[in-house]
Specification:
This protein is mainly beta. It folds into two domains: 141 residues, Porin (Beta Barrel), CATH 2.40.160.20; 136 residues, Porin. It contains one helix and 16 strands. Strands 1-2-3-4-5-6-7-8 form an eight-stranded antiparallel beta barrel. An eight-stranded antiparallel barrel has the order 9-10-11-12-13-14-15-16. The longest helix has 29 residues. It is flat, with a radius of gyration of 20 Å. Its main location: membrane. Keywords: Plasmid. It is found in: Cell outer membrane.
Length: 337
């Protein structure tokens, strides 16, 4: 039984990591176009869990937004890999202090911020999975080299996550891309600002996959329909019908309303955004069919292929109170008007 669980988890965990890697690779390749933004990083390496005496993989991707030469803010996704009875990941918003070298090509930074974690763990002797959520703190140190002054960046980073029942260390290295080019080497300050709406009206149809967050990681085919409306230059609202398909232990569908922080890049060809809101969902495998109010957190990227048509990738994380969390990853075609 244990072998079957690990094999299933490895298969669908691998799919999740492949989708993440493909998205990050596409973003990094796209960043070579003319853009107006700040910095984006993809880092990978080793995670160490001292209390268990175990090591595993870890990776992160991050958007960094310069405020001054010596201060910047970031939002990151951190995956802490798999150790015994714990599969944990999460999101963090951090504020950083930075020291720059005289030529502005090297920087040393310290960052700290809240860490919202999602931990799939075991709650019973029979191996029943529990999705534990909570808040912790993420403390980070980074050494950064702006290669030839930019735009490519090499970074080595250490993270200390103090959250829940586990404290972990991650040692990461990877590449970043500087999305603004200024008259000086190093970080570009101040960042550009926008006065027009990022989105006016957008209607999108999606298809993709649902992965249940337990040790077996069962999956199903998902689809969604979304209406998006911009209300401020950096703020969108969405109404979404989401069908998570039949993932063996979860068969759920419902309506979600989300508020978004969004930002355009590449002369409005690419947008990145973060959304959160209530998800009113009926799960037909939950006690014969129960409607619950869940949370829905989403990271999304869209690329405009013509003035009216756009492609969009969205990664939804459902947040439940009964250990039925899922990741819903969907790709869609949208019409803007």
């Amino acid at each position: 039984m244990q072998h079957r669980l690990v094999s299933g988890s490895a298969h669908w965990g691998g799919l999740r990591h492949l989708l993440n890697a493909a998205l990050c690779a596409a973003l990094l390749m796209g960043f070579q176009l003319e853009a107006h933004a700040q910095e984006f990083y993809v880092l990978g390496g080793l995670q160490q869990t001292p209390s268990l005496g175990e090591k595993t993989y870890g990776y992160t991707y991050e958007y960094a937004h310069n405020l001054t030469d010596n201060v910047y803010a970031s939002f990151s996704y951190l995956n802490e890999g798999h150790v015994t009875n714990h599969h944990r990941d999460g999101h963090s918003a951090q504020l950083w202090g930075r020291l720059l070298s005289a030529d502005r090509r090297f920087a040393f930074s310290l960052g700290v911020g809240p860490y919202r974690y999602f931990d799939t763990t075991v709650k019973t002797a029979e191996g029943g999975a529990s999705d534990q959520h909570g808040w912790g703190i993420l403390i980070s140190a980074a050494g950064t080299w702006y290669i030839n002054g930019g735009p490519w960046i090499l970074q080595a980073r250490y993270n200390r996550a103090q959250a829940g029942s586990l404290d972990t260390n991650t040692f990461l290295i990877g590449l970043g891309y500087q999305l603004d080019r200024g008259s000086r080497d190093g970080p570009v300050v101040p960042p550009p600002s926008y006065s027009s709406l990022t989105t006016h009206n957008e209607f999108t149809v999606f298809g993709g996959t649902t992965i249940v967050n337990n040790f077996d990681s069962p999956s199903g085919i998902a689809y969604a329909v979304e209406y998006r409306r911009g209300i401020l230059p950096y703020v969108d609202l969405t109404a979404t019908y989401l069908n998570e398909g039949d993932a063996r232990v979860v068969r759920r569908q419902g309506l979600a309303a989300q508020a978004w922080l969004v930002r355009p890049f590449f002369n409005d060809h690419l947008t990145l955004g973060l959304g959160f809101g209530p998800y009113f969902a009926r799960d037909h495998d939950d006690g014969g069919g129960v409607t619950r109010t869940l949370g829905l957190f989403t990271m999304s990227a869209s690329y405009r292929i013509s003035p009216s048509w756009t492609t969009r990738f969205s990664w939804h994380r459902t947040v439940t109170t009964n250990s039925r969390d899922t990741d819903v990853m969907v790709l869609g075609l949208g019409y803007r008007f």
